[in-house]
Design goal:
mainly beta; Phosphorylase Kinase, domain 1; 2 domains; 6-stranded mixed sheet; 5-stranded antiparallel sheet
């Protein structure tokens, strides 16, 4: 299995969805409902590319062909993402073995208000996370981020965190990966993919 980078082609439209792994239990006697959050949430992405020609068309055709269905994996970014927080510095994981919905970091630019804002993405360990609360950096460049979904794989100390162009994760093709051809060598592509939670 090989992991490829997605071609440098911007989709006409795309959608991202966090598929949570929660379970709901309803009592047959009282109708009381209880929910449990479990590990294994993943991202699902759909992309549509309209009327591609030339090199873009050829790159997409070759890319989908070499994936060989679900044999290989790929990384892709959310093309609509624009970070709202100030950012700065070289953000690193501060402490091995972190799990859960909070990430302790260092290496940020010192004393920045709104270093990252809710809705900003970060990626590390081949995982994409969304910041769920505004975060400021300290005078020493430390910052603690509230994130979702929870961390799947325990962190490595000083692991790099991407805040500039976070990848959605490592994906495999889902139920749809096809292109339609039109006269004048135009092709439109539809791709659905799901995150590989074991990557």
């Amino acid at each position: 299995m090989t992991t490829y980078s997605f071609p440098a082609v911007t989709p006409s439209r795309s959608s991202c969805e966090l598929v949570t792994n929660t379970k709901t239990f309803r009592s047959p006697l009282t109708n009381a409902t209880q929910t449990v959050g479990r590990k294994g949430s993943l991202w699902r992405v759909s992309m549509q590319f309209n009327n591609l020609t030339g090199a873009d068309r050829a790159s997409m055709q070759a890319f989908l062909t070499k994936l060989n269905g679900q044999e290989h994996r790929f990384t892709v970014q959310d093309h609509s993402f624009a970070r709202r927080g100030t950012g700065g510095g070289t953000l690193l994981i501060n402490g091995a073995g972190q799990t859960g919905s909070s990430l302790v970091c260092d290496g940020a630019t010192f004393s920045v208000t709104n270093y990252l804002l809710e809705g900003d993405y970060i990626s590390f360990n081949n995982e994409l996370h969304m910041v769920t609360a505004n975060a400021n950096s300290s005078a020493a460049g430390a910052v603690t981020l509230s994130i979702a979904p929870p961390i799947r794989k325990a962190t490595v100390n000083n692991g790099a965190i991407n805040i500039t162009v976070p990848v959605l994760g490592v994906f495999m093709l889902g139920s749809k990966a096809e292109w339609d051809n039109s006269p004048a060598n135009l092709s439109s592509f539809s791709i659905e993919a799901v995150e590989d939670v074991l990557a």
